[in-house]
Amino acid sequence: MENMIEVKDLRKEFKSHSSRSGLKGAFRDLFTRQYKVVPAVNDISFTVKQGEMVGYIGENGAGKSTSIKMLTGILTPTSGIVRVNGMDPHKEREQFVRSIGVVFGQRSQLWWDIAVQESFRLLKKVYNVPDAEYKRHMNHVIESLDIAPLLDKPVRKLSLGQRMRCELAAALLHNPPLLFLDEPTIGLDVLVKLKIREFLKEMNEKYNTTVLLTTHDLSDIEALCERVVMLDEGKIIYDGQLDSLRSNWGEGKQIEFQFADTEVDKRALQPLLAEFDGVWTQGDRENVWIANVLNEEQVISEVIGRVVAAHKITDLKVHEISIEDIIRNIYEEGVTNG
């Protein structure tokens, strides 16, 4: 299987002005500016194979957007190597953009005032897609995304969910081997999210489309990606299978107890977990407490037994530790993956 994306020691530095203080400092700044060089992306390396769907995650300011802009040819790297679909995204720009699809949740590639299908026709010309191929492929895309009723409406008349489905269709109009998705489901309702996820899975299965997905919605990643690349402060802090994230950091269970007595506090509860290496955290209401314990049947049943024997309980739920919790733990520990 070939590599669709190859990144080696990729770095992007930005100059930021540092202002001197006081009136005298401001006057000197007029003539000589002091610069500070800040690395936004700090010598990262990774590869993505053809047909992979990879979640690309990190908090704001971690370097995600900057690295995606280098991968799509919008920004030039300060140093390092980028090969995407066998090309240098910046140097072979014209040929390169024909081989990728891009959906940025905050930016549209459709023309605001004309009907959606007119935008599609213009993009068909831009990408030089033959009629027969366009018809066969787009009929399938339009049907799968359920956008036939929207084709004769101008983009400005569409809701956010309708527009995002049309954006996705536009990005895949030339059936590119590689799709960059940046927050594709932001602000969308659950049914639209599900439709978009189903469609992306189908495209991946049918055409072996490679997908790099940036999102804050971790349920998108759980639904679509087997692998995640996680950035923090411009460096990769985790690159591996989503499943092993669970097994390394998420081996616990959360037992949520709702107590009849609102006076129950952590001090009273702590002895009940004493020998189980468990931790109590406050739930979303004052009489709800969560026992974070190891995922072992014996431990779980023993903890439940002890709590129920000692206190009156009105409700009880057992949860898997969520991917969001796991990722929060990784950021807090600043763990690198060897």
In short:
This protein has helices at residues 22-31, 64-71, 93-97, 116-126, 131-145, 160-171, 190-207, 218-224, 242-249, 266-273, 297-310, 323-333, and strands at 3-18, 34-49, 53-58, 79-84, 100-104, 178-182, 210-214, 227-232, 235-241, 252-259, 279-282, 288-294, 313-320. The chain is of the alpha/beta class.
Could you explain the architecture of this structure?
The chain has helices spanning 22-31, 64-71, 93-97, 116-126, 131-145, 160-171, 190-207, 218-224, 242-249, 266-273, 297-310, 323-333, and strands spanning 3-18, 34-49, 53-58, 79-84, 100-104, 178-182, 210-214, 227-232, 235-241, 252-259, 279-282, 288-294, 313-320. It has twelve helices and 13 strands. The protein has two domains: 3-10 and 45-246, P-loop containing nucleotide triphosphate hydrolases (Rossmann fold), CATH 3.40.50; 251-320, ACT-like. Chain A, domain 2 (Alpha-Beta Plaits, 2-Layer Sandwich). Strands 5-6-7-3-8-9 form a six-stranded mixed β-sheet, sandwiched between helices. A four-stranded antiparallel β-sheet has the order 11-12-10-13, with helices on one face. It has a three-stranded antiparallel β-sheet with strand order 2-1-4. The protein has 338 residues and is α/β, with parallel strands linked by helices. Helices cover 38% and strands 29% of the residues.
